[in-house]
Amino acid sequence: MLRLSRFLPSTSRKVSDLKDVLWSGSVTFEHALSTSAANVDENASARKFASYTVFKGKAALSISPILPNFTKIESGGSRVKKNGSVMLTFFPAVGQRQYDYSKKQLFALSPTEVGSLISLGSAESCEFFHDPSMKSSHEGQVKKSLSITPLGNDNGYFVNITVLNNVQKTNERLSVPVTKAEFAVMRTALSYALPHIMGWDQALTSHPQSPTAPASKPRVERPHPDSEWER
Amino acid sequence: MLRLSRFLPSTSRKVSDLKDVLWSGSVTFEHALSTSAANVDENASARKFASYTVFKGKAALSISPILPNFTKIESGGSRVKKNGSVMLTFFPAVGQRQYDYSKKQLFALSPTEVGSLISLGSAESCEFFHDPSMKSSHEGQVKKSLSITPLGNDNGYFVNITVLNNVQKTNERLSVPVTKAEFAVMRTALSYALPHIMGWDQALTSHPQSPTAPASKPRVERPHPDSEWER
Amino acid sequence: MLRLSRFLPSTSRKVSDLKDVLWSGSVTFEHALSTSAANVDENASARKFASYTVFKGKAALSISPILPNFTKIESGGSRVKKNGSVMLTFFPAVGQRQYDYSKKQLFALSPTEVGSLISLGSAESCEFFHDPSMKSSHEGQVKKSLSITPLGNDNGYFVNITVLNNVQKTNERLSVPVTKAEFAVMRTALSYALPHIMGWDQALTSHPQSPTAPASKPRVERPHPDSEWER
Amino acid sequence: MLRLSRFLPSTSRKVSDLKDVLWSGSVTFEHALSTSAANVDENASARKFASYTVFKGKAALSISPILPNFTKIESGGSRVKKNGSVMLTFFPAVGQRQYDYSKKQLFALSPTEVGSLISLGSAESCEFFHDPSMKSSHEGQVKKSLSITPLGNDNGYFVNITVLNNVQKTNERLSVPVTKAEFAVMRTALSYALPHIMGWDQALTSHPQSPTAPASKPRVERPHPDSEWER
């Protein structure tokens, strides 16, 4: 029988500390912002941030969704320019219920990596490899891997990040055991997030006729949208 | 073959009674409101409340979602300050189809407890412990536990709450059998609610450019949002 | 191997016919409207109707979601007064691809009945009984039952409605075979609809501060919303 | 153990190329637009497009949701006139990581075909047949089929399109292997899209009382909406 307890001293103060770090400082989980005038961020005040964090003995793991980017297209609408992602942030523990937020390690899951994670069988593993310097002259200097391995007996998973730095000759590894219940939260949150980080929720939002839009602009005929026949 | 019947005399009057109790009186299922001027509740008139209730012989069980709390952050947006929850409310029966709403017992499920419940196998159990006086001088005086145990043969679950009061020397226990169909409603509603009580729906809502916002406020460069490379 | 074909002569004209019937005439799938001035229907023009229909040899079956009803509460918000439902509408065939819409039979699934349907195993059955005259002097005169029974070999289900009229001494029965793919559509649509017909989507919608609301109305302190401790 | 890698040279430039093709040119994935003045497209600037694409050795496959069409009904609301769909677009490879977008093949999945795909067991297959000239004098000249067959060992599926042109005596075939992780993305995206392409999200959206609507227009009595009793 699974037992969860809340009799433990609260970690709420720690969570606040964490969140202050997550949403400020050097990493901001926001829309991609360029310095170009075209991408002026007018809606910073409307942005909301949310995460799900598990605190364990040797490290904490926080997951957080990131929105996709859209770009204007000629026809007047917009299309996804860059998919969003789900960011995994690991923090090492430096004492009982104390975590060093300056030593965080990041790993951004792509839609397909999210798909891998949410379809993981209870006895299955998966591993992803990222190279932060991909496509630059520094390619291969730093290698990150994220692996998810079963705890056994359908009890959850170990989520491990390894960051190998060939220049600094360092090899950092953080590991967080995730219970079946916690993984169910992650799976549900990731399944919910997946269509959103690909922009499908926005593509599937109907836009009712705007009463202020000029109604006197008839369009020329276009091919029927969902017809596959027209080639 | 499962059979559900509606030939029974209606319980609709009772449901109304219950709802009057649920949404008024000493417990209000609303946003956390402080008395600070900053948190003035301007939107009370827009708030909507919903629940799912099962009425059984010895007790009734009602589940109801509660929104998370957001707090402003320096950068101009906001982040989850306190997760929402799913409130379970138990009412003892005091006669045929009559329940004593003054003797209700509450149990608020955290996101991880919701995760535990929605991933529960048909033959599995789970149990959660809460201490209402946690972190106060009264810690340990009252202990609550919620257990969910299978009825057997994939027929649903017993949902039991026990409230042990060491000061008043009382030990109240309410138990509600939940059919497979009713549990499917709960599981579906909880799965739907989970991303919302963690604020992920709000974090994943894009905010289109507001036409009234001042467009002439270019921002300084910020790190690319979803890049994990920038440490 | 499952094979679906679109080479058959189109049924699109028939579908239009059906929809004209579904959304007009004696049955309107709309919000509950009383004649009281308080419930004036100001938003008829914004309402949208959708269904999913399967046309088979002896009958057609259409399913369609119906919104819940809210009622104002003292505190200024509103709560679900009456759950929505998912309406099943059966039409008997009167010729090849022709259906008699005047002989439709209706069956409104409650949230728990929806839960029963979406959790149905591939070899399981379920049956629901409704009495249209429940709680009136005509109780027992008409009895409806809806049964869902497996086609066998994980191939889908038979969905059957029986309407027994003890006064008119009639016993009508319509039966529609639903393929595994069609049932997957129904299951997905019903799972999506379930939180909505219970009003959970509206209860979980956050209402951002309205700029036009009077901000100078500080509230008195209220109990913390999601605390279960306060009894 | 499943391994995904990002060390490969990026395909981002190719993706951009693809998207330019997807959202412009001869095929526009938009609302159905007639040339009639009534259907003037006033909201082109608000439209957003999203897809999910997998690039493989011999071909690429992109899936993309298409909204349903609504039409006004007499009572003042609107109903689904034509279901949306999920468009599958195949592109043949013409070199390493190079695809010929001019040779794309399209296949639009109906709601029931989406249901078939999302309920596909890991060892199951399905096949759909479309005739682009259905109901015209050219019926039977071109036959398309889409088949989805398991790769084996729960490793994903082959997605194959065949276009047989009896006039041009051509038979084109494109085949894309889809990993389990990629299929999980498709399944999740399709499950999310399904209620939307049928318009259920719009039918289940409540429309709060508009403050600007004339409140002095009481309606005549109508039958109770979700009552099945009223025949």
From TrEMBL, chains A, B, C, D:
Extent of Basic and acidic residues compositional bias: 218-231
InterPro entries to which the protein is assigned, alphabetical: ssDNA-bd_transcriptional_reg, Whirly
Biased composition (Polar residues): 203-213
GO biological process: defense response; DNA repair; regulation of DNA-templated transcription
Residue ranges, annotated region (Disordered): 203-231
UniProt keyword Transit peptide present: yes
Keywords: Transit peptide
One GO CC term on file: mitochondrion
Keyword Acetylation: no
Pfam families: Whirly (PF08536)
Molecular function as annotated in GO: mRNA binding; single-stranded DNA binding
Entry-linked Gene3D superfamilies: Transcriptional Coactivator Pc4, Chain A (2.30.31.10)
Annotated family: Belongs to the Whirly family.
UniProt protein name: Uncharacterized protein
Organism taxonomic ancestry: Eukaryota, Viridiplantae, Streptophyta, Embryophyta, Tracheophyta
